Amino acid sequence: MEHSNNRGAVAIEARRVASGDAGLDRILGGGIFRGAVTILQGMPGAGKTTLANQMAFENSRRGGRTVYITLLSESHGRMTASLTPMRFFDDAEIGQTIHYVSGYSILMEEGARALLHLIGSEARDREANLVVLDGLFVLGDAGLTESEYRRFVNDLALQAELMGCTVLLLTNGRRASDSPEFTMVDGWLELGWQVAGHRACRFIEAHKLRGSGFLAGRHSLRISTAGVEVFPRLESYLGHRPRVPTADARVSTGVDAIDAMLGGGLPAFSNTLVWGPTGIGKTTVGLHFLSMCSPDAPGLLFGFYESPEECVHGARRRGIDLESRIADGSLQVVWHPPTEHDLDMLGHALLDNVRTRGVRRLLIDGIDAFEKVALEPGRLHRYLTALTYELRSAGCTSMFTSEIAGLFDEQPLVLAGDRSAIGQNILLMRYAQQGERLTRSLSWLKVRESAFDTRAHAFEIGAGGLRLQAPLDPRSTPAACMATGTAGA
After folding, report:
1. What mean pLDDT do residues 303-311 have?
2. At what angle do helices 343-357 and 380-393 cross, to 10 degrees?
3. Distances in Å between the alpha carbon of 68 and those of 164, 256, 353?
4. What is the pTM of this model?
5. Which CATH architecture does the domain made up of 250-483 adopt?
6. Is beta strand 130-134 parallel, antiparallel or unpaired with respect to 465-471?
């Protein structure tokens, strides 16, 4: 977090212990409270140990010291071996700023008071500012009564406060949410799995962070060689205070005739929904749009259904030059094969690219893919609203392609759902059956705060790309279809 010019933010950060992940720190308002006791709860495999170790190494990086006490049967060597591939792991810190201690035998042989004494003495001797107790649930296995359990947690919190030490308590999900430890601690984070059909996605949820606001609800989590990465729900923090630039400028679509229909091009910083059935030419419109990017106005193709090679090859066949744009760095093609994805991970990847490269022209080829990966389709409208507000705030003019299910639908708007709400400009592309000939047409349904040509125009796609023709009636004629024997085609 960059807070060098904000004294208030610096003061807040000084009271926090960073997690080593920007997404989680965003959810927590900068990290967990320094000198507080926080529970990390989750079933085995949820990522508690990885996150705790990540925080320990981040603490070392910032000049702190950690004592990591385990009550589990897993050896420290085995645990650190599993962490070796993680980028945050640094073997040189073990035994220097991070000390691993086993507390299992002391708990079982001498009891909870002896364990409490071990925690305090190790923290003092190692001058630790962070203590991790991994396996809090083992206290129950050791035969502690509910009263003794509560007393242990209370005494540990008092000890942490006296020493000015931050404490992380790792436990599994067997204890009920109304158990005393959850009411006595300062923070409570839950890690787990969310299952929908055959898909399972990791999540993290902050239930409690005493004296502080946080982004409530479940947020996506990924464990990779980067460690624990958290992706806050976009709508939980974006789009609440839009900062959209204002301008009367126009942005060319890359097709002069379409620009003429719009009075000079698309309104700058707007979102355009390109809408039509399969094969109609939606991607071609988007490729024309991207062909106008430059080093001063970089472009991004964020696609799902065609690989970068297929996109470039398809553009070349249409006479649209993307190769030179890619070669000079004006255009980047990012491909996410339409398999299993996470909605928020996609959104964060998109926004990171837009912000990092200063993207001014964006084509999302297949906005429907976001719909298909959403575990909770009901949140899609909020998600897309937050995403498009942030794109506009970043100074980006965006174009999204979306497919209509039917070839000759008279009222495709009823199929749009959440998608029509994000289209400030909507370009409708349709087929028409005229005798034996299948023709294509396009028409603008709406353009943000602009006058535009409302007529439907026929068009063709050839070696020179998209060519607009005369206005026509875009509706298919059932009688004509019957006459040619193509009804229902």
Report:
1. 91
2. 10
3. 16, 66, 37
4. 0.86
5. 3-Layer(aba) Sandwich (3.40)
6. unpaired
